[in-house]
Design brief:
Blueprint lengths: L9 E6 L3 H5 L2 H10 L4 E7 L14 E5 L8 H13 L4 E4 L4 H10 L3 E5 L14 E3 L7 H9 L21 H7 L5 E4 L11 H13 L4 E4 L4 H13 L12 H8 L4 E5 L2 H8 L4 E5 L4 H4 L7 E4 L24 H10 L5
Parallel strand pairs: 1-2, 1-4, 2-3, 4-5, 5-6, 7-8, 7-9, 9-10, 10-11
């Protein structure tokens, strides 16, 4: 009873990016919890990303914040901000440092507010934090997150590991969607220039089928990504395709059943890694050094050097860098996977 009435220190971790970035934050969350074992650790992310964190052990609460690109949505946001202020956080850490994260760091009212020292953004951004750290350049994104925590004396693990947990109550529903474990192929990406050509996916399926391998294809629920599945079906009418799954929680439950996951550099790649599913990553314009899945069970293939630059979502090269990755090279990696025999 000696701890009765003891006030727990509260920490708020803030992340306003996309699915892959969210998963790559999990090693830093684990380091925070290990360094401050008595702290109540809260996480604030975009509302649609909440399922990535809500079943992780050691978190006090996951806050979903309404987000829409180019819109503040104050009517929905302000009640969440007021509720966060009532928590009276002792510390907050913003892992991204974009304008939204910086402003919310200030509005949430923690006494210590840590964030990256960024050169871009609105003029008053640096005043939103009480402490800043110069970002770690050229390293894996998970290490960049851990580097930020060095301001609090936290030293991250030598080999960071992602951690994502699916909702166990959705296991039966996931089994109906994917009755038997299969190689799950994700054909969409957030940026079109990161996509592997649909014709390559079609040829990979034909060769895998001939080799006796079971493949199932899926994509994001946005119309552009679903159109890629439609094009794949036109090229290979019998290809097995999952229905659009706009609910991230059920997608995680299905993904957990995969025998192997293949995709370009996109968020679900890191979700699969966090769930413990072996992956094959297809990289083109982005850097594997910064974005490759963590762990020895993951493989990757790199396309040709990209000539499109980083400012465009579209590929304008006569032969896209992703097209240089052949279906045969992917099939060879599948054969070498210790989980697929």
């Amino acid at each position: 009873m000696e701890n009765a009435g003891r006030v727990r220190v509260k920490t708020l971790a803030i992340q306003f990016r996309y699915l892959g970035d969210a998963a790559l934050m999990t090693p830093a969350l684990r380091a925070l919890k290990q360094f401050f074992p008595d702290s109540a650790l809260h996480v604030m992310v975009a509302r649609e990303i909440v399922p990535v964190f809500e079943h992780l052990p050691g978190l006090e609460r996951v806050w979903g914040f309404p987000r829409r690109r180019g819109s503040a949505r104050l009517r929905e946001s302000w009640p969440v901000i007021l509720a966060l202020r009532r928590e009276r956080f002792d510390r907050s850490v913003d892992f991204v440092g974009n304008d939204r994260g910086a402003i919310l760091s200030l509005l949430c009212g923690a006494r210590q507010r840590l964030g990256p020292l960024c050169q871009r953004g609105f003029l008053g951004r640096r005043f939103c934090y009480t402490q800043t750290v110069r970002p770690l350049e050229g390293q894996h994104e998970s290490r960049a997150n851990l580097h930020l925590l060095s301001a609090w004396g936290i030293v991250g693990p030598e080999r960071p590991q992602l951690e994502v947990q699916a909702d166990p109550s959705l296991a039966a529903a996931a089994e109906q969607l994917l009755p038997a474990p299969a190689i799950l192929c994700f054909v969409g990406t957030s940026q079109p220039k990161k996509q592997w050509p649909t014709s390559h996916w079609a040829e990979l399926y034909r060769r895998a089928l001939a080799a006796g391998l079971r493949m199932v294809f899926c994509s994001g629920f946005q119309p552009r990504e679903q159109a890629l599945l439609g094009e794949l079906r036109r090229q290979v009418p019998a290809v097995p395709v999952l229905p659009a799954l706009p609910d991230l929680a059920i997608f995680l439950a299905v993904l957990r059943r995969a025998r192997l996951f293949i995709s370009g550099d996109t968020g679900p790649l890191h979700l699969a890694a966090g769930l413990g599913v072996p992956t094959i990553a297809l990289f083109g314009p982005s850097s594997p050094r910064r974005w490759a899945p963590l762990g020895e069970q993951h493989r990757l293939l790199q396309g040709a050097p990209c000539t499109c630059g980083t400012d465009s979502d579209l590929c304008r090269a006569p032969r896209p860098c992703m097209a240089a990755i052949s279906p045969d090279a992917v099939l060879q990696l599948i054969a070498r996977s210790h989980r697929v025999s």
